[in-house]
Every structure is written in C-alpha cells, then in structure tokens.
Amino acid sequence: MELPVLISTLRTALESNTVPLLREQLDDVHPADLASALVEFAPQDLWTLLTVFPRAEQAEVFGYLPAEQQVKLSISISRRKLAPIIRQMSSDERADLFNRLDDEQRETLLPALAQAEREDLLRLTSHKEGTAGAIMTSDYAILAAELTVTQALDSLRREAPDKETIYSAYVVDAARKLIGVVSLRDLILAPLQMALEELINHDPIYAAVDMPQEEVAALIAKYDLLALPIINSEHQMVGIVTYDDAMDVAAAEATEDFHKTATIGKLETSVKDAGIGLLYRKRVFWLVILVFGNIFSGAGIAYFEGTISSHIALLFFLPLLIGSSGNAGAQAGTLMVRALATGDIKLRDWGYLLGKECLVAGLLGLTMAAAVVGLGWWRGGYDIAVVVALTMMLVVMAGSLIGLSLPFLLSRFKLDPATASGPLITSIADVAGVVLYFSIASWYLAL
C-alpha cells in the first residue's frame, strides 16, 4: 500500500470510528511503512491507531518511529500503557529511548519494568554516547563449548523468540569470556552428533565496548558481518552490534559530515522538526566568521586599486578566477575529508599526496588556462590574456593545495576535518586568488 493511501486509510478509520477494523486491512503492511504513516498524526491519534495491533507488533512499529515521535508519544501516554510496549522492544531500542527521556520520565518508567529488564537497561545506558556500548544490544544467543550440534540447535530454538539474531551464536565459558563464534549455517549442515567445538571459529572479529561507533560500523562493513560481538576489558562478552544498527551509525555519521562540510553544527533532530532558533544557532557562527574572513578579499582589491583603475578589464575576470580557485579547493578538500573519514589515507600520507596533487593541479591549471586565454585576448588584448592564463594556472594550483592541506592540518590538531570543506576552503581560496591575481597583474603589466 502506497504511503498516501495508507495515511488516508488511517485518517478515514479515525473519522468514522472504525479503527478496530484496521487490523485486517493492514495485515500485510510492513511495520516501517506503518510507522511512516503514523508520524502524520497527533500523539493521541497515533496511540489510538497503534493499539489496534498485538503488543509485539506495537513495539515493532514504535521502534520504527522517529526518535522525536517516540519521545512525544512516551510523554503523552500513561506509564501503564507505555510499559508493556517498552518491555517488548529490543534491548538496544529500549536503551535509546531511555537516553532520550528526561530524568523525571526515566524515574516514572523504571518501576514499570521487571528487575532483570531494569538492570539490563541501566547497564546499556551507562556507556558513553558514541561508543560500541551505546549502540549494542544484549539480545544475543550464547552456547556452551561442550554441547553437541543437536544440543546447540535445541538451545537456539528455545532462545530464538527473545533474541535479535541467531544467525551467529557466541560460545562463552563460565565467566562469559568469548571463546569463539559459530554460524547457524554451519550448525544446520553439520552431523547432529558432532561436537560443537569442531565448528567454532576461535578467532572471531570483535570490538571493545569503548570503541567509537563509527569504527564498529567500519568493521562490520569491512568483514560483511551480520553482527559484531562486543567485549569488555576482561574479554567478557557484553553485547553485539547488528548490521542494521551499523547502517544507522553510518547514515548518521554521513549526515553529520555533510552538515559540517557546509559549516553547520551537528543537528540532534531532523531539519523538518528543527526550530527556527536551533537552525539559526547552528548556522550563524561560521557565517559570521567567514564574513570577516572575506574582508581580506576586499582588502586585497583595495590594495591593488591603482592597477585595477589602469586596467578595468581585469575586473571582468575576477569572479571567474577566484571561483575557479574555490571550486578546485572544494574538490580536493572533499576527496581528502572522505578519504580521512574512511581510513583510506592517514596523516603520514600528506607529503605523498601533496606531490601527487601538485602534478594533478598543474595539469588542471594548464587546461583551464588554455580554456580562458582566448577570452582574455578578446576582452583585454595580449597582456590581459597572459595575466589571466598565468593566474588561472596558479590559482587552481593554490586552491587545490589549500583544499588538500586544510583537512590534514585540522586532523593534526585533533579537529574534525569535515569542517574544512565547503565555505571554509572556498573563503581561504578566494583570498589567495585575489592576492595572486592582482599581484601577477601588477608585476606583468608594469614590465
């Protein structure tokens, strides 16, 4: 069912008081699609529609709702209504919601959970934000090494309803120290009386509980894992991070980097739900900084006022030249920021990349100089053509080297290189372009 049709069906059911009949109509609708439709309704109407479904399905749909909508719904309904859904949610989704609630709401929710659920929730939410511990789930399958294949399969059948995934089972000892991992595929294909020990991978990929979440996502992507075991400092298994959570992390990191490339601060909410004040605060700082940075461009133009007044044709090419410098810088900066973020390059690679960029930027500059030399001749004659062509080659090289070097410089000082892209590189390249252009013009035209 398409989203507009689904929204219309839900709205009609509310208006005609036929909400109880929705369950059969929406039996084949995926919970994610249902959640996308429910966000169009006010919290009370959303709750009315949600209660049509069984408790487990309610929890699944609730888990697909945007974070802001989950919090709004949690505030608007009673603890008695909310607690059963929270109990049905996976442990990591439950912890994410708990972290978004304020202290008063947390104190209201905790007594509604069983002791084991409370302890698990508090343990998961105790980890530092942005680490593996903050995104892991405790719903994973474990096996003892001394089992046979038959016993292992029987154990997984019993555990399956309460676990997020059973495609990989983790073998631990009595102290919960990770011994290895065994896949469900290997268990199904193995002889039933074979000892589990013979199937165990004793050298599994794992991550420490305090590893940054973006590194966890990179590990899962690199090794094509469905889930990554997480261990503490004593090598005890404390959770897993599943591939879907890793995808969420990767998407969030990419969004944050996109915002930073435009010198926008990190948004904790969606653009749609962000208020005017929040959007203003996130954008104003760098815009003001860049205004003062661009003053240097104006100062450069003022300094060469005599040259400009003698050769007015120079002004015609100013936007073209400084724009080319900024574009070349933005290109190089984007390549470096992304390569640093993915680990494709390290700080020690700067010298090698600088040499390579000099050659690439030189070729780009020569090509662009050849493209504009005719325009320079037509507009201002031979001398202006030489100045424009020479400047084009140099500003493209300068912009490219600024774009390449600034991300490395920020990384060297433990700052996020993503901030170096977009407006920041362009502004610096603009100043360099103005100074180079009029310096070359003053020198050459005075000969």
What would you note in describing this structure?
The protein is mostly helical and 447 residues long. It has 21 helices and six strands. A three-stranded mixed β-sheet has the order 1-2-3. A three-stranded mixed β-sheet has the order 4-5-6. α3 (31-38) packs across α5 and α18 (313-342) packs antiparallel against α21. The longest helix has 31 residues, at 350-380. The model has no long low-confidence stretch (mean pLDDT 85).
Report the sheet-strand fraction: 5-15%
Give a count of the beta strands, DSSP E runs of length 2 or more.
Answer: 6
Sheet with the most strands, sense and barrel status: 3 strands, mixed
Which bin fits the share of residues in helices? Answer: 55-70%
Give the count of helical stretches: 21
SS class = mainly alpha
Helix and strand pattern? HHHHHHHHHHHEHEEHEHEEHHHHHHH
Shape field:
elongated
Order of strands, main sheet, comes to 1-2-3
Separation, N- and C-terminal Cα atoms: 75 Å
Unreliable residue runs: none
Mean pLDDT: 85
Rg (CA only) = 30 Å
Summarize the structure.
The protein has 21 helices and 6 strands.
Break the fold down into its secondary structure elements and pairings.
Layout lengths: L2 H13 L6 H4 L5 H8 L4 H8 L4 H10 L2 H10 L2 H10 L2 H10 L2 H7 L5 H10 L7 H4 L4 E4 L5 H11 L5 E8 L5 E6 H6 L17 E2 L4 H11 L3 E5 L5 E6 H19 L14 H28 L1 H6 L2 H30 L7 H31 L1 H31 L10 H23 L2
Parallel strand pairs: 1-2, 4-5
Antiparallel strand pairs: 2-3, 5-6
Helix pairs in contact: 1-3, 3-5, 4-6, 5-7, 8-10, 14-15, 16-21, 18-19, 18-20, 18-21, 19-20, 20-21
